Amino acid sequence: FAELHAAVPGLPLASSRVLPGIVLRRDFAAYCPTDGELRALLVTEPLRPPLTAPGVEFVVDSEGQYQSSLRWITRRIEALMKHLQSNNVKLLLSSAKQEEVVIYYAKLYGVSVVECLSSEEMALISEITGVSPYASFGDDMDREATETAVVTFCQPLLLASKRCVHIGFTGVCAFQPHCLILCGPVDGVNEQHAAALQEAFTMLQQLFKTVYQ
């Protein structure tokens, strides 16, 4: 329930509504408008490639060597974004914060990015779509991104003064998520309404469980 409702203080209760899909309470790190169905990739680590393997010391002997290393990183990130674009991946959903160079090339190749998602949000998206977070590409840039989720729409949403991300997914089961936008004059009233609704849903869940048993 926590991931499927958003409390918006400062608005009348009559402004409350139910939206299809899910609402992520953060702004796009990069937003590239697109029409129609697209594919999304879930990641849990920064996409900027490391210069060395874990536990291996990297020694830079000169400014030229350092600049050469930065150029190598830039080329790798650009190749990755080009690869995602060719696989029709136009949305990155990341639990990790991505570096500016990743955001730059994502915008350049038309890939929207939402970062710093919570583990609960990632788990909900995985449950809806049946898709697990993607492992690192490593050295294999030609490997197809098969573990992708189908997204029916992806757009900004303004809730009062807060910018959010509104996404619709094609689910793998009968569960079609909807998000409750709960409005009220102050946070305390919203919290009371949210608690009451959660208790009501819990009661209905228990009731239907009893009936179907």
TrEMBL record:
GO MF, one example: ATP binding
Cross-referenced InterPro entries: BBS10, GroEL-like_apical_dom_sf
Gene Ontology process terms (BP): chaperone-mediated protein complex assembly
Gene3D superfamilies: GroEL
Protein name: BBS10 protein
Organism: Anthoscopus minutus (Southern penduline-tit)
